[in-house]
Write a structure and sequence with these properties.
heterodimer, A: 222 residues, mainly alpha, 5% strand, B: 194 residues, alpha+beta, seven-stranded antiparallel β-sheet, two-stranded antiparallel sheet
Chain lengths: 222, 194
């Protein structure tokens, strides 16, 4: 990578890695391994970028951060940081795209093992990922990188298929309206014929006190 | 004098050794049966019925095959070409009694995944060194509740993107990616002395 390209790419990489580091849990061996990898990359970022050797450590960082237990929401936050980075040189654009692609691949790996509660949750995630994938796929076509484009399209399709398969058996979130305020136990019994789901109703509707739940709210359809 | 096998026949070239899983046999007659699942609705006081198509019927195969003793043991020709026909017979019986689906290959029909619904082996006193099988197979198909392993597909695709991105960043692309010397858009690239 040329010197001026590396000069632009390095801060992008540094800021993304700082955001990534913020998502890593402070305890545990996996967290330590992730912090070590990120620290090593940030310390040698300029040298690695200039000698075109940053790709493997970057991929390693995302992998280790994922293994440390970073959630999808955190990864999405890091992606937002990287996407907001301005880049004008070839090296800067390339590095930014690489970081977003690695981020999306890590997100996909996290999503593959995620458990969802309702169909709406899955559909919201699908819409956000659709937008993220579409943008980076377009960027890959702009730089005529057909192999990366195809790999991204395959990942996009695999994630969407997985989300659709996952959403299929899940219950929907529906609205309810009682005539008067009820306790969560009674509301649970009215809705599901069991009082055992009172805590679920309390959490979903952010009920302050379980004896006084608002008459209107939302609940899972099954 | 020429023989019948010397006459060029395309179908003869397409002949394949008959087998179920890995057990081979000689085929005397093999038939494949199929059709549509039609329900005929006949209405009172009406002359015209309605034949409702409920989908394709499952393929059914009825095969009459045999194992016979060969004049000598042929090395490398499998169990079927041996002096003791019981080796091929027992092998076929073993495969027919196994649980689950297997591939049935008949000499002139395409292979298909099938399950054995019934078989009969007949040995006659007056025909020594020879046994006849009557086999019935039905198309194995697939379970309607079969789960697609979407999780593994996501993981494989994610690994692919990670590997590809790492390669591109390391300058190890396959040529479909612009190299560091190619300009994109309005960017001006010029060498800055170190």
């Amino acid at each position: 990578m040329k010197k001026e390209d590396a000069a632009e790419a390095e801060p992008i990489l540094q800021r993304t890695m700082t955001a990534l580091l913020g998502t890593v849990p402070t305890q545990g061996r996996a967290g330590a391994a992730a912090r070590l990898a990120v620290g090593d990359l940030t310390a040698n970022a300029e040298v690695l970028l200039r000698s075109d050797q940053a790709g493997t450590p970057m991929a390693d960082c995302y992998n280790k951060v994922r293994l440390a237990g970073t959630t999808w929401v955190n990864f999405a936050g890091v992606r937002a940081v990287t996407t907001a980075e301005p880049a004008s040189t070839l090296g800067g654009v390339l590095t930014r795209h690489s970081l977003i692609q690695l981020n999306l691949a890590a997100e996909a790996r996290v999503i593959a093992d995620m458990a969802f509660r309702s169909r709406q949750e899955v559909l919201a995630l699908r819409d956000e990922l659709n937008a993220a994938f579409s943008a980076i796929e377009e960027a890959a076509t702009d730089v005529m990188d057909s192999t990366t484009y195809l790999a991204l399209v395959r990942l996009h399709a695999a994630v969407m298929a997985h989300l659709i398969e996952t959403a299929r058996p899940l219950p929907r979130l529906v609205r309810f309206q009682f005539a008067q305020p009820l306790t969560t136990l009674l509301a649970s019994h009215r809705l599901y014929d069991t009082a055992a789901r009172a805590d679920e109703l309390r959490a979903e509707n952010k009920v302050v006190h379980p004896a006084f739940m608002l008459p209107a709210g939302r609940a899972l359809s099954a | 004098m020429s023989t019948i096998t010397q006459i060029d026949n395309p179908w003869r070239k397409a002949l394949k050794p008959a087998a179920f899983r890995n057990a081979h046999f000689h085929v005397e007659a093999g038939s494949r049966e199929n059709g549509r699942r039609i329900v005929v609705h006949e209405f009172p006081k009406k002359d015209i019925p309605y034949a409702e198509d409920m989908g394709r019927r499952a393929f059914e195969f009825t095969v009459r095959c045999y194992c016979i003793q060969y004049p000598r043991d042929v090395a490398g020709a499998g169990d079927l070409y041996r002096r003791d026909y019981r080796v091929a017979r027992d092998r076929l019986i073993e495969e027919l009694e196994k649980e689950g689906q297997g591939v049935l290959q008949l000499p002139l029909l395409p292979p298909m995944a099938v399950v054995v619904t019934r078989y009969r082996v007949t040995e006659e006193e007056r025909l020594g060194g020879y046994c006849v099988f009557d086999l019935t197979f039905v198309e194995a198909g697939r379970s309607p509740l079969e789960q697609v392993d979407s999780r593994n597909k996501v993981i494989e695709a994610a690994k692919d993107v990670t590997a590809r991105t790492g390669d591109v960043q390391d300058g190890k692309g396959d040529g479909s990616k612009p190299s560091g010397n190619v300009e994109i858009g309005p960017i001006e690239i010029e060498e800055i002395p170190n």
